[in-house]
Design goal:
Number of strands: 34
Structural class: alpha/beta
Radius of gyration: 39 Å
CATH architecture of the largest domain: 3-Layer(aba) Sandwich
Number of domains: 5
Helix content: 25-40%
CATH class of the largest domain: Alpha Beta
Mean pLDDT: 85
CATH superfamily of the largest domain: Class I glutamine amidotransferase (GATase) domain
Largest sheet: 9 strands, mixed
Amino acid sequence: MEKYLIIWILLGLLFSSFFGYYLYYYKVKQPTKINLVLAIIRSLAIFLILLLLINPTIPEKVLFPQKTKLSVLVDNSSSIKYFKKDSLVKHILESLKTDKKLNKKFNIDYYSFGNKFQLNDTFNFDENQTDISIPLKRISKIQKNTTNPILLISDGNQTLGNDYQYVKIKEPIFPIVVGDTSKYKDVKISQINVNRYSFINNKFPVETILQYDGDEPVSLRYTIEKNGKIIFNKQVNFTKTNNSRILKTFIKATQEGPNLFKSKIQSLKNEQNRTNNSKNFSVEVNNKQSKILIVSSFYHPDLGALKKAIESDKQRKVNIEIISNEKNQIDDYQTVILYQPDEKFNLLLNQLNNKKLSFVLITGSKTDWSFINTKSLGINKKNINQLENYSAAFNSSFLTFSQKNIGFENFPPLLDYFGELTISIPHQTLLFQNINGFSSQKPLLISTNERNHKKIFLFGEDLWKWRSSSFQKDNSFQYFDKFIGSIIQYTTNKKIRDRLDLDIKPSYNINSKILISAFYVDENYQFDNRATLLLTIVNKDTNEKSILPFSLFDSSYQIYLNSLNSGKYEYILTVEGQNISKKGSFVVNDFFVEEQFTSANSNKLGLLAKKTKGELYFEDNYHLLIDKLVNDNRFNIEQKSKEISTSLIDKTWMMLFVIFLLSLEWFIRKYFGKV
């Protein structure tokens, strides 16, 4: 393009020169010096007009001032209000917004943080958790390779996330400490570790961590109460050096359902903060434990993986047995898993079929398909003596039970015999076979239900690799374990799958946002998005009753419960116009995590400032920080340059110059009588 532009300009130059020559030399018999001047002026004017018509672009460097970015991070947690510093923080922010010198030097962005981080310039200080590490990481990522300052307004107390003191950040941080920095004597219940579930008449462990901040030796009484009655007490001694104690005890589960307990440590004389002297906890007590039997003719890593996954739910107990030709005692078990059956399983399969008991059947490299094909299970495989690796492809249309995609496509393949699989009974497919990256639309895992005789078929071994892969991906076994748990729950249930399901925890902390999800299907077991779901909750202490509607979200119904008082609640979930309901209970624990601190953590904020080459300021001298930022040469306004391309026709002076040349030509011709 640039090559052709030069050609056009040269042609324009030749044409304009020829035109001037022709007009004032070729047509004139005796040209003079005036003719030469006129020829030059006319040629130049014509050339400039042609140049404007060609309209080339001209690169230019433009200088512009660039302000430094100042990010103001504001602690929006309820601890600010608890320290009665919410008005002060708003005053500091107003001072920042109205300071002319500061705003002239900086482009200021305001962010709020608590249990979430967002761009914000209004603050209500009502968030129930504080994570300082996330906003620091996010701002550092936003600013990339710059060293723009960060102003952090906080009490320095963190209740969530990684320790902000060790966040890697290159931007200088200037904290403003709000809150009382004085050190007071304090004793608190730092943490309670307890199992979520227990079983009736069993003893469950309770571990309590106590902390003391003071110089004088003290002896205090620690108690655990249930329904106002003390069930455990112990005298605990603290000193300045021996200021932390771990108490362990066992409590017998005597009542089925949610059990609410209150732990208390005796208050110190003139103790400033007594809210952290007590903490509630709850345990869901179950009356029965499900028993699952795994039967195999040989040992395999899958057996251990299945056992661990199933027993991750403490309501379940797994026994592993090597098959024998004797009659198996299966009446005590709620689910039986048949691992790679062969002819030794004949008697057991007859028992299961005769009693219409649900089971899970897993095949693999040692499965006797000739035997399975004779048992009228609804599955048949014409296999050849060749093994194949089958990866998984998730079926989002699966409706038998609720199951999310936990990354099945990325799990290692399962091993089974290659062959044509025929399924002659109604079924739903959760996972399809994927061979070498191509989905075959042939089932890898199916569910069946013939007159409440439920079965799960999984065509492949090496599930232990799936569990290991799930851990590598999520740093936890929970997603794989829940997947296996869903299979067990389906086959354990003695009735047809409930049309109405509810996802609710047995306990919550006060002031936390309680999310409850419900799942409802019609009589054909298709998700019904037309239903009206209502949740009725009753506070057992006050008998206060609330009826709340669910909102539809994707393929579930959801509702948030906010501002519930502590105590025990009973609920009833109903579907309007349907004789379907779910009942249960949950507990709200009286625990305000943001009120567990006695003072602001200026030491940690000071270390953060020092590490990042910033400075620490306190609430009473924050104006010095404004002066510091205004006068700090590290953050001066910089002159930046950028290259822009402008069209020649946009240059006004070019048109004016052409008019000048043509006017000058006319004047000379007029003066010398050439007109």
